[in-house]
Amino acid sequence: MKILALDAALGGFSAAVDDGGAYPTAVRTGRQDALERGLACIEMLLDTAGLRLRELDRLAVGIGPGSFTGVRIAIAYAKSLAYGAGIPLVGVSSYDALEPEAAPLPVLTVVRGRRGVICARLRDGSAPTTACGPVAATLERLLPGEPGLLHIAGNTEDVLSEIAERGWTVRVLPPRADVPAVAIAQLARTRVPSPSPHALAPDYGESPAVTVPKMRT
Q: How far is residue 80's CA from residue 201's CA, in Å, rounded to a whole number?
């Protein structure tokens, strides 16, 4: 299966082509420049892999949470490419892209938002729970019980000291892949595609910091 994966939710724009080989072809800009460089990166990756868009079996995209603008741009690219080429489209959560395979429980996966704000998912053997907002309030919602051993994945910098102050013993896990788009491509192999590209919904996590009300007509 040949997959093109895109992500702009996690630490800038990344893209990967995974044809089932040991080393997917990938690029990561490290900046929120998906709008400026995204299409050129995609074209370069396909040329390097010797593929045309219509030869792909599947497209995949990170649906967030993460960068609000990045999520919008990456999903817009993915929907347009999938619709134009008639290729199935798979959405992959940022939490899944960051959490390593077979992560021990309990595991808290953290996605950085704007300054002082995170989105996080806790898996502890029961139904996963998620929360977004200021660091302290989000951790209070997800970690209300007695402290113990907690595994953490993702953007951990903003939460480590706060969690340690609550009495938890913390073990930081490595990411599933060094490039988010590579993890998304791997996960997309076993995911059910969206019924149609247009049906794929983003997960923005927290609402944008500023909203503009619609004008009355």
A: 14
